[in-house]
């Protein structure tokens, strides 16, 4: 279901992937610095989760400014929270690369404003912990403030997320967290000798099983 979400004086394009049965849990997904909501990883994950009973809303927000992207993500959260069509108890925020930074930033901001438990967790796909070859400056400040459960799905050969550095940040986080490493995957989740679909299946299954642990979904 395509929707346009008001954002300032314009609209954000978004798509709902709706499960057959009414869902009480949802996930909001967004893309990285390049691309849009039709990035293959997001389309695949949204379809997979919807087929397993989780409502997904993915949206496009262009722009390389993290504050702008965070503001847009926050607007989408509010939109879904007030939706009459889909009355959800809670949502998980998810993003790929820069989108996961925006998701973490939203959770940090909202946790300081209200504690109504609408946001249940955070999924970071290819979290960009640092710029390529610039490991001295970590983008970890929002992660350290997050208190809800966090799942990281990263490639072990991601040039923007050194394995040891992410494990170090995770050990400092106060939130319950899990890291799933996709063996030999780069930042784009490409793995030599594996098809893209094969890698997506691994990612989707990991995200869903983690979600199920965190919301105790009845097994569909």
TrEMBL record:
A Pfam family it matches = Abhydrolase_11
Q: Which Gene3D superfamilies match?
A: alpha/beta hydrolase
Concerning SUPFAM superfamilies, the annotation shows: alpha/beta-Hydrolases
* Annotated InterPro entries: AB_hydrolase_fold, KANL3/Tex30_Abhydrolase, NSL3/Tex30
Boundaries of every KANL3/Tex30 alpha/beta hydrolase-like domain copy: 27-210
**Could you tell me what this protein is called?**
TEX30 protein
Please name the source species: Steatornis caripensis (Oilbird)
